[in-house]
Amino acid sequence: MRRGGSVFAALRNVENSPNGTQIFGSSAPVMTHFRQSNAYGLLRSVGVRGTF
Predict the structure, then answer these.
(1) What value, to the nearest 5°, has the Cα angle with vertex 7 and ends 3 and 8?
(2) Fewest CB within a 10 Å sphere: which of 16, 25, 27, 39?
(3) d(CA 10, CA 4)
(4) pLDDT over 80 at 38, yes or no
């Protein structure tokens, strides 16, 4: 590894929790507020940064 180079890692949604979308409006009934749920899983990025 040269000077000025680096290694990086990024993690998102480490706990693997689902993402819920909710809608709120003055005229919407309470039972229609929850819209959808998405489970994306763990997102990870690993790489090397520098000048080659």
Answers:
(1) 140
(2) 27
(3) 19
(4) no
Q: Is residue 25 part of a domain?
A: yes
Phi-psi region of 41 (alpha: psi -120 to 50; beta: other; left: phi over 0): left
Amino acid in the structure at residue 14: V
Query: Using H for helix, E for strand and C for coil, what is the string for the chain?
Result: CCCCCEEEEEEECCCCCCEEEECCCCCCCHHHCEEEEECCCCEEEEEEECCC
Contact 41, 12 (CB under 8 A): no
pTM: 0.46
Asked whether residue 1 is domain-assigned, the answer is: no
